[in-house]
Design a protein that fits this description.
Layout lengths: L2 H12 L21 E4 L2 H8 L13 H18 L7 H7 L3 E8 L2 E8 L7 E5 L6 E8 L8 H10 L6 E7 L6 E3 L2 E2 L16 H12 L4 E8 L14 E4 L8 H11 L5 E3 L13 H6 L6 E8 H9 L1 H12 L2
Parallel strand pairs: 1-2, 5-6, 5-9, 9-12, 10-11
Antiparallel strand pairs: 2-3, 3-4, 4-6, 7-8, 10-12
Helix pairs in contact: 1-3, 1-4, 3-6, 9-10
Length: about 325
């Protein structure tokens, strides 16, 4: 075992309750845990990642879990170019309530950090192997179950090979943002299951770890909006709102993508220049990324018709991917 992974295992086991919450049961240190290998079709991804969330009870992540996932995400990204998984990752993942799996999707290997038991801790994927299509991009779909079809769009953009540069990582939530337990959802601004508004969630720690491990990383989040007053006032005919999360103006990364998306969707608008809502100004991943040198944050809100168009039209989805990731 490498020295780095030995340290990772120590991090994963060092903090026990009451380190923030009740931890998920962990295997005994002397019980061997192996990386699970799967051949996964695109059609199976939704069931493997999100199906169990409907029956989950939210449990807060612990300091131990956050430390373990931070170290694991950094280790996976550091090893991604070589494409060789460290067997010790599986034990480290198990000690934080996760499983480390290796998925073969269409001939490409993806390392999957998934919950051992569903509790809303999220799922974290890193594409293994290097190539000319690499991009220092973390793609995120943090409001699956609520922002409908963002799971389909995110999974297709990440796991599918197409005429675009491929993101290095894909992160997603695994429980409805307002869900506390099966059948019980309470809508409130500080919902603990909402990964974009809970600064203590392991999702934020994983995002920061990935951005620090990828030089010049761009974190792109996919969201959706409807027509209700709760979504704020957007100009009529708005298809998308592209934001860096900053009320002072668009960033270079968000402005460039907004310009490209305007060619695909006439109603693509920049926040705050063209739209004064849906700007992600309270997004916790945006705030933590401000402390990561060279990192950028791009938040994309999509209308229901825009999301449906991307799912229904493979050519439009490919054009969308080329704008986000490059060709």
């Amino acid at each position: 075992m490498s020295r780095g992974l030995s340290s990772l295992l120590l991090l994963a086991t060092a903090c026990r309750p009451p380190c923030g919450a009740t931890a998920a049961p962990a295997p005994a240190p002397d019980v061997a845990v192996d990386i699970v290998h799967r051949r996964v079709t695109e059609g199976e991804i939704k069931d493997l990642v999100w199906k169990r969330g409907a029956d989950a009870t939210y449990a807060p992540t612990t300091a131990r879990e956050r430390a373990g996932v931070t170290a694991l995400v950094a280790a996976m990204i550091a090893a991604a170019d070589a494409g060789a998984a460290d067997p010790a990752w599986a034990q480290a993942a198990a000690q934080t309530g996760f499983r480390l799996e290796a998925w073969d999707v269409g001939g490409t290997t993806f390392w999957a950090l998934v919950e051992a038991d569903p509790r809303g801790a999220g799922a974290y994927f890193v594409r293994a192997g290097s190539g000319a299509d690499d991009a220092a991009i973390v793609l995120e779909a943090p409001h699956v179950y609520y922002d409908l079809l963002t799971e389909d769009i995110g999974a297709r953009l990440f796991f599918r090979r197409g005429p675009w540069r491929r993101p290095r990582a894909f992160f997603t939530n695994t429980i409805h943002r307002h869900q506390l337990e099966p059948g019980k959802r309470v809508r409130r601004p500080d919902s603990p299951a909402d990964v974009t508004h809970n600064p203590d969630h392991v999702y934020t720690a994983a995002t920061e770890a990935a951005a620090r491990a990828l030089a010049g990383a761009v974190v792109i989040q996919l969201h959706g909006f409807g027509q209700s007053a709760d979504d704020g006032a957007v100009p009529p005919g708005t298809d998308m709102v592209i934001s860096s999360g900053d009320r002072a103006g668009s960033s270079e990364a968000s402005a460039a993508r907004a310009a490209g998306l305007k060619k695909l969707f006439a109603g693509a608008r920049r926040f705050p220049e063209d739209a004064d809502a849906l700007g992600a100004t309270t997004n916790v991943q945006m705030h933590v990324l401000r402390g990561v040198p060279g990192a950028a944050f791009v938040h994309i809100e999509m209308s229901s018709p825009a999301r449906r168009a991307l799912v229904a039209d493979a050519a439009k989805l490919a054009a969308f991917a080329r704008v986000l990731f490059g060709e």
